[in-house]
Amino acid sequence: MSSELRSRKSETATEAPAQTPTEAESDTVTDEVTKEDLACDEGSNDGISLLSRKYLPKAGTKGSNVGRRIINVYQKLRKIKPRAFTSYPCKPCLYTHYSNRWFSHAEYHLSADSLKEDIDSEDDKHDLSSKIPSGTNKTPGVLNVILENVPERWRNWTIRGIFTCLLIAVFCLTIYGGPLALMVITLIVQVKCFEEIINIGYTVYRIHGLPWFRSLSWYFLITSNYFFYGESLVDYFGVLISRTDYLRVLVTYHRFFSFCLYCIGFVWFVLSLVHKYYMKQFSLFAWTHVALLIVVTQSYLIIQNIFEGLIWFIVPVSMIVINDIWAYVFGFFFGRTPLIKLSPKKTWEGFIGGGVSTVVFGCFLSYLLCQYQYFICPIEYSEKLGRMTMDCEPSPLFRPQEYMLPESVSPVLRLFGFKKSIHMYPFVLHSLSLSLFSSVIGPFGGFFASGFKRAFKIKDFGDVIPGHGGIMDRFDCQYLMATFVNVYISSFIRSPSPQKLLQQVFTLKPEQQLQLYYSLKETLENQRILSGFE
């Protein structure tokens, strides 16, 4: 077929230049175009190629009736909706040689597929619910048998309850494993969340097998983790790492190496650009970076919170979990008033009930954990012990203090025999701020995720956890909470740490350490601080 087409082209090329037909000529074009007049090229996609001038005649011009007749024939054979011929180039499939001179010089390609795929538009984004698996519809076979005759409402309640208990058990075991186990779990959750988000991007933009694009997304994930986790290692383990000669280079030039790795990925992306898919590729490039911002950056902040003390990780995470559980319980039994259109099942009753439960639970858990050094001490490297340690002298934040109650409540307190003051850990007061944020602002992380899923008509991010959905469905609020906790610590809690400054001193060369010592000694003597200890 292709050879026949080329021979026809060569014949027309040797002929005298075709003259533009008159209006009468264009009106006398054969009305009958049969199926035999059209030949199909089996090796290509659904489409049509017409031997014509550069473009088919536009509506309202001479010869436009000819173009309309061909459109009608094509519609009958291929059963597609009418679209403008003059705007969409496409792949060749169905070839015809129309006898009129008007179509004797060039090819024009039209394809039903290209009308959708060659133009980057919002029309590409169809219902993805059949392509993205739903975790809330996935149930283990044993539970299906047991809950076969249970009403759908209580069936979902039971499945969610069982797997919620399993998730809480895994969380407790991870805490028992210590900081290292928590960091490993954080990394695993991060990778899985990134995979779920990026897979939606692949499905939405249908990358058509573009070379290296999946590899690029995962390369940027590795690069981002190298930078952020490297920053944590340098910050907390810098002294230990610097003692090894070949690792000292990685500590000294960590940011430079990170930038070089990113530049490699950037150049790789530019070289992988393919004509006609620029918009899709740049959209996926932006999609990847937004996913990295949401997932990797927040994971880095979670690691920072862990190093400040396990209590700064356990309490906020538990608050989000408790808020989610009790909001579901109150909404299930008492929910009547819709809260927000993005999540029709969320109710004001569940929102308020979950908020009150979170505040009460947060204060109780904070008071309990403040009594144990294991949870309140920051994780630091001890030069004296030569290892990481969680032993410390509790800071004032975790020492009981007496607080005088307002005079306005004194009569009530005397009536019930209470004192005018109470003893409380200052951290419990800070936990009120955390619980208010987790119960009022935290749910909006879930609403944001709900809006995202509605935009692409999917129910869940994945099907990893039966009754719940994907990993991202469980951690959408956690990432927002982790950011708030990190900002809260930096703004209201953190103070300069002598131990941390000492670690930085140990990274200096011996002569620099001596110079620092003499300068510090001279300053202290001038301020008469040192004389008081002699």
From TrEMBL:
Task: Give this protein's Gene Ontology molecular function annotations.
Answer: phosphatidate cytidylyltransferase activity
- Disordered: where is this region? 1-35
Indicate, by first and last residue, each region the UniProt record lists as having compositional bias (Basic and acidic residues).
1-12
Cellular component annotations (GO), alphabetically ordered = endoplasmic reticulum membrane
Superkingdom, taxonomy of origin = Eukaryota
Q: Which family does it belong to?
A: Belongs to the CDS family.
What PANTHER family does the annotation carry?
Answer: PHOSPHATIDATE CYTIDYLYLTRANSFERASE, PHOSPHATIDATE CYTIDYLYLTRANSFERASE, PHOTORECEPTOR-SPECIFIC
Question: Which chain regions cross the lipid bilayer?
Answer: 157-176, 217-241, 253-272, 284-303, 309-335, 347-369, 427-449
| Entry EC no(s) | 2.7.7.41
Please, one GO biological process term?
Answer: phospholipid biosynthetic process
Instruction: Name the major location.
Output: membrane
Q: What's in the keyword line of the UniProt record?
A: Lipid biosynthesis, Lipid metabolism, Membrane, Nucleotidyltransferase, Phospholipid biosynthesis, Phospholipid metabolism, Transferase, Transmembrane, Transmembrane helix
Locate the compositionally biased regions of type Low complexity. 13-23
UniProt-annotated location(s): Membrane
Q: How does it sit in the membrane?
A: Multi-pass membrane protein
What InterPro entries does the annotation carry? PC_trans, PC_Trfase_euk
The species this protein belongs to is Bemisia tabaci (Sweetpotato whitefly)
Give the first-level EC class, as a single word: transferase
Identify the metabolic or biological route this protein is part of. Lipid metabolism; Phospholipid metabolism; CDP-diacylglycerol biosynthesis; CDP-diacylglycerol from sn-glycerol 3-phosphate: step 3/3
Q: What is this protein called?
A: Phosphatidate cytidylyltransferase
